[in-house]
Every structure is written in structure tokens, then in C-alpha cells.
Amino acid sequence: MTLAIVLAAGPSAAGLTTATGEPLADRLAAQLRLAGADEVRFAATLDELSELISTATAPVLVTGTDLVAHTAVLRHLATSPVGPTVALVLGDPPVPGRTAVREERGQVVDAGALNALDGDATGVFGGALRVGVDDLPNLAAAARAAASGMLPVAAPIGPAGDVAPLPANGGAGSGGSVAAGGPGSAVDRLFAGLAALGTLIFAQRVRLLVAHRVEDPAGLTAAEAAVTAVDEDRAELRLSVKEKDDFFSTYFVSTWSPYLVRLSARLRLTPTGVTAISVLFALGAAVLFGVGGRPALVGGAVLLYLGFVLDCVDGQLARYTRHFSAWGGWLDTMADRAKEYLVYAGLGFGVSHAGLGNGWALAIAAMTLQTVRHMTDTWYGVLHDEAARRPRTATNASGGIGDRLNAASTRVQADTGSVSYWLKRTVVFPIGERWALIALTVALFNPLVSLIAVLVWGVLAFAYTGALRTLRARWMWVPVLDTVDATLHRDDGPLARWLPVVRPMGPLTLAVIAALGPAVLLVAALLADAPDGLGWAVPVALLVLLVGGLGAGAAHNGPLDWLVPAALRAAEYLFAIAVGVVGEAPGWLIFGYVFVLTVHHYDLTARLEKRQAAPPLHAATLGWEGRSVLLALAAIAGIAGIGLATLGAYLLVVFVVSVVLAWFVRPARSARASVAPAGAGGAVPR
């Protein structure tokens, strides 16, 4: 049950009445109910708010009494999928009594008085926030501290909720600050205290809709007029489109996809249903690419484009209807990759079927390259988010090529719509550009040209992003693997955990060495007239591969250790491909095995984004080194093809069962346990 609290403590606009004659606070309460709150309570003091929070078992919405906004603004705040704790942030200039905010990459990284921020303010607190269940103790501690005229310390809060005295001038202290010029409203002090505790807070910006904080009848009248002037439903439909998307998506999809969004909503389609339809379109395109012939290739290109449109529509529909779920987000991530790799498979088969060359080799290369790229993208995003949350220090505040690159990137990103902005977004070869390139090259030429084009652009994009990110990462020097379960995201098995630890070389160096052995074996096998004669080299390549396991127990705190998961993925994929080539397994079988591996690894990255625990049957996947040992044994026994097929089928079954357990069986059990009657281990609701 979602609880909403209207905080009327301290200086506020509680006495203002709206144009209809009702108190502004009462209208806010009604809007909170429309926004999804199951219960709305009023708190006259911060202590009373703290007591209400102590009984909450679900996310809590908190607002002041001076907010005039569309109901959709509060609904977006209540349903935001970006994180558990989200604050409304306005673009208004900071004023006395309001908490200034500095945000980076959508996260509130500092909040307090304008003159106390670690950098320039990017906005001002909008007087409303949603706090996730895990952050409710911090919210209660911030309320108690603000009620006593104190602010929490900046260091991680302890069990007792330690606080430090607020400076007499109301400015910055060792643990945080309130808005300059006075204590500010209670909700401002509450938010400043929550941020000072180091709580991860995401920013919810207002775009196209209206939200203002008011102080007097004139301000209230002006804000109400601004709200009335905007068509709420039309604005929500436009808001379903991402504010910053890639070039192809922006100009060739989002210009007309909102019409499909509205139609889908009227037909009561769910985002998951649209995702399923987009998979069918991509599958149809892959089949036509495999069939070959100009009509089939053109038809496949059209289906591929329409499938990508639907791929955009599912997310837009979720934003328009506010139907978000962890399952839907996970499924969308997995479906995107599955669709793309099915298309690669269709192209690869089409090349071979038409006698244009070894299409499966090109398809395997494209899939491997794209997966390793995605792994670096994911972990660089985690690195950037972690860097944004950390205070700036003298060592990385300014100077050096990393700082200059960071500043240049920020300037380009801020210059929305410029040529440099679109070049930066396009050169990295995002999914819209990939699908557009495939559709155009297939329709105009053939699958061989399409796969070569994907590989060439992909390699150039990988080199570009890799070089720049490496320089920026060395400047930021922020460890990220140490903030998560490194064993899980390395995908280590029992063997890696048993191996001795070699610390001086570092886990990244060891992971890169691990990839070199399989790479050399693969190149030798591809160049050899009789690759099966290299069976003796498989154990040697395996030993080199296992070098990567020597860093499993070492600290992953180097500036480039965020590359370790991608390096290990490359090492395992290269070894599996090399085993298949040496064992003369068919190309489609090697592709299928690597595809199953990528599905498993994308599951891990999808869980990383939500900081979820390991899949239910993760231990049964054996780890990258365990799977590689089994393949090596199959190759030595002369049954590499059987080994790939058997192990691939086993991993696929484990993955499917794990998905069923994680998303259906376990949630159903939890739901039954939560409503179990008395005498059966449950409690009777009061």
C-alpha cells in the first residue's frame, strides 16, 4: 500500500485556496490519490511525519503544501522506473528558502544552499519526492534531524542515525546544508537531510507539463493558469517519446510512433504484448533474409524497420500508460538482443545459402563484437554513475586530458540538435542506426554487404568509444566492481574460486591474457588447411584462458577494472568459437552456442542495472571457466560438435527454468505467503 504524506510543517502555502475555493493542500491530497496513493495522510510536524514513515511497508510519497502541478507530474513521480527514490526537480532559479540541486546523469549528487553546492546548481527541489522502502530509515532520520535543527553527517549513516549540528548561519556544514537565507520549508529541510545522508536520489524533471511552487495568491493564480493552458493528455503522449534519442529514432520513428502508442492504448495492448509482436516482426525479417531474392530482401527490410518501430512503441506505451514492471523491463532488454541476433542469424544463413561466402562466420563475429561492446557500455555506465555520486576531489577536479574530454562531452551533450551532438550520438552505432544500416544494405545490396557493414562500423565505434572511455576512466579513477558482487558479474565458477590469486598483475591484465590464447588458436584454425590438426593446441589455449581465473579473488579497484567482465566474455566466446572451428562443428551450431552464452550474460547485465541478486540457478551454469573446461574435454575426445550441442542445450534449459523460477514461481510463493491465514505461518490483517 503506497502512503502519501502532505507535510504542512513550518512556513508553507497551507493557507492558500485554489480557484475552486478548496485549500491547496486538499487539492494536493486528491491529486496524490489520482496519482496512485492508496492512503493520504497530513503531517503537521516533521516528528509526526517520522512516526508515519515508521509504519510504512511500501514506497512513500511526500509533498509540501505549496506545489501547483498537473496530476500527471505526481503520477510520473509515483511510477518512475529510474530508481526507488526519486525527487521532483524544477528548472527554476534557486531562491531563499528553496533547496538547490546539482544533478548528473539523472542523479541528485548534491543538494542544499546554492553557495554550499559542490559545483553549479542545475535546478531546484520541486517540493515532492518518492522514497523507496530501503531508504525509509534514512528519511525518518532526516526528518528527526531537521525537526531538531540539525543535519545528518555526510559520511554513511550508522545504525543510530548520527547527526551533526547545523551551523548557526544556516549554511553548509560537515554533513550537508539547507537552503540559503534561512531554514526554508520543512519539506526542503527534509530533502536536504535525505541527500546529506548519501541516499541515492534520482531526479524527475518536468517537461511539457507544469509544476510550480507558490508562496502567495498571485503566484497561485499564475500557476493555475499555466496548468490550465496545457492539454495534459496530449502532453503525456508527447512525453512518451524519449527526450534524447538517437538520430534515426528521433527523425524516422518518433515522428509518427505516438499515433501507434495511442492506438495500442485504445486496443488495451500491454507493453509486453507489443514487445512480443516486435519479436515476430524481427523473426519474419530474419526468415526473409535467409530465403534471399530481391523481393524477400526488400520485404525483410520493411519488416525489420516496422519491428524497430514497435521496439520503440513498447517503451513509449509503458511511459504513456505508466505500466512499468521489473519483468517488463527485463523482457524488453532480453528481447532487444534476441531480435538483433536472430537477424544476424538470418543474414548469415542468407550469405551461405546464396553462395556468397561463410555467412555464419560473419554472423558469429557480429554477435560477439556487439555483445562485448554492450558489456563495456553497461559497465562504463555504472562507472559514470558511481563517479557522479562521489564528491569531487583535488585529484580529479580539474586538469589532464580526461578532464578536458569530460568537459567537451558535456558541452556537446548540452548543445542538443547541433551537428556535433548528432555526430557524437551516431558514431557510437546505437541500435537504431544498426537496424537502419541492415535494412538499407540488405534492400539495396545483399546480406553479405550488410554483415560486413555492421562489422566495419561496429569495430570503428568500439575503437572510438574504447579509447575515449579509457582516458576518461583513468581520470575519474572510480572502482565499480568492488561495489557489486564481482564473482557474480565476472561469472566465475567453482574452479576460478579455487585457483590461487595473483595480485601484482591485476585482474584486467590477467583477463586480457586469458583472451589472447583462444584468439591465437582461433586465428591459427581459420588459416589452417586442416584445422582438426590443431587439437593438441586446445589444452594449451585452455591453460592460457584459465589465467583469467587467477584474478578472481583480487581487489577490482583499478581505474580500468570495469573492463574485466567484457574481457572475460571475449575470452570465453573466442575459446568456444575456436573449439568449434578446430572440431569442424557446423557454423550454425557454433552460432547457437555463443547465442545461448550471450543470453545468459545479458541476464546478468539486466540484473546489474537493477542491482538484483543472482539468478536462481546461477551456480548450475558452471562459470566461464567450467564451461570452457568441458568444451576442451569434448574437443580432446573428438566430439566438439556434440559438446557444443549438449552444453548449449543444458545451459538453455537452465536459463529457461531460472527465468520461470525468478519471475513466476518465487513471486507467486511470496504473494501466497503475504496473504497466508493465521495458523499457517501468516498474520491476520487488522
Automatic annotation (TrEMBL):
Gene3D superfamilies for this protein: 1.20.120.1760
Superkingdom: Bacteria
Limits of the DUF5941 domain: 491-669
GO biological processes: phospholipid biosynthetic process
One Pfam family from the record: DUF5941
GO molecular function: phosphotransferase activity, for other substituted phosphate groups
GO cellular component entries: membrane
Alphabetically ordered keywords of this record: Membrane, Transferase, Transmembrane, Transmembrane helix
Keyword S-adenosyl-L-methionine: no
Family note: Belongs to the CDP-alcohol phosphatidyltransferase class-I family.
Protein name listed in UniProt: CDP-alcohol phosphatidyltransferase
Organism: Micromonospora arida
Lineage start: Bacteria, Bacillati, Actinomycetota, Actinomycetes, Micromonosporales
